[in-house]
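Curious: can you check?
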Amino acid sequence: MALASSLFQCADPKKWQQVSDIYWEVVKAVGAKKKGLVDLDRWFQEELPGAISAQPKKYLKQEELVKLMEWKLLRGKFRPRLQQMAASNPESTVESCTRKAFQHLPNVSAAIEELCQLKGIGPATASAVLCAGAPESAAFMADEAVESVPGLMPIQYNLKHYLKFLEEIRMKTEALNAESEEKNWTPHRVELCLWAWKVGQKMCPKLLESLEDGDERPVKKRKTK
């Protein structure tokens, strides 16, 4: 696959798997310039999901929401005001709101609206909360992932735009699972690959160039009703 080509247009799950395999190398490359990112990303991707799932009814603690916001801002654009607003949410409110949000699933729209009642939480941060506890239902609205999907620029940080993004990610997830034996693709995993591909082009292009050439089958155009 040519470096400048779009991963989103690739239909070969083997190529996507190759990108998934280098995810942490890309994170480390970014972490070389953003101190603390690697540890925060490990926490978000590996520790937080287990902590959420361990609850009889899924929810986030206030300290987890604050740490999630820290991860989001360090991984993307730093907005200190959002960190302060997230920290101002009372513990009981965070637990109640996040619990209700997970109970709304698989209605992602209702779950996002519930989470956006918290101070400092918009659709993008809300999507991070959902994919941490339900990666099979949601994907994080990372700028790099949204930019990788044709037809979604310019990015609008609202629920309508997020739902368009999620629909495209879900269709790609279904397509990859249909072509793979493991069928272990989730919206969150697809989004992580798009992030790694987009960021890798800038931070560590040689790493992407080292990937073996695979079957670069184009995506079949969907019929419109």
